[in-house]
Amino acid sequence: MTSNKFKIELLKTNWISEEDTQTDLCAHGQMRVKIGNEIVVDQTENDGWTISATAQLLLRTLERNHTKENPVGDQLIPCCGHFLVFDNDMEEVYIGSCPTGIDWEVTHENGIVTLKTESGTKTKVDFENYKSEVLNFVDQVEEFYKNSPEKEIPKDEFDRKGYLQFWKEWNEKRNKWKK
Prior knowledge:
Layout: E1 6-14, E2 28-35, E3 38-42, E4 49-50, H1 51-60, E5 77-78, E6 83-85, E7 94-96, E8 101-102, E9 104-109, E10 112-117, E11 122-126, H2 127-146, H3 157-176
Antiparallel strand pairs: 1-2, 2-3, 2-4, 5-8, 6-7, 9-10, 10-11
């Protein structure tokens, strides 16, 4: 087995509106992702990807596969991910996004994670290395929230339920993988 690199770096974090950071619930930013020798994403020209949704979706890939047939979300790096849907019949929050985004497949077998990009680059990474990269990214995104003004919980019941469940799921999944 050839073990190639998987690297995800958070380059910049921001809210869409710097004037209204308390009601902006989704963190955005720029990132660089390298799978094998392929740079999957290197920054972006707009306000950035929805890094809070990316972090949540990557947390899901720690315990299950993400394939076209069985995705953990629409794409692992969504342009937008602000539409959070949850009801009591759902196990996880649905993170709605536009069709713009970047994706790759993640499969697990015997402690090895295989990553396959949309262009066909395939690399194998030891699960512990994969987990470390994902958790480092997740922790950086969470730190951005902690260092920002406290969020105003949505008053609308639908929006409030989705947002609160997003963080409940985040905390449960993150705590499961404590370092």
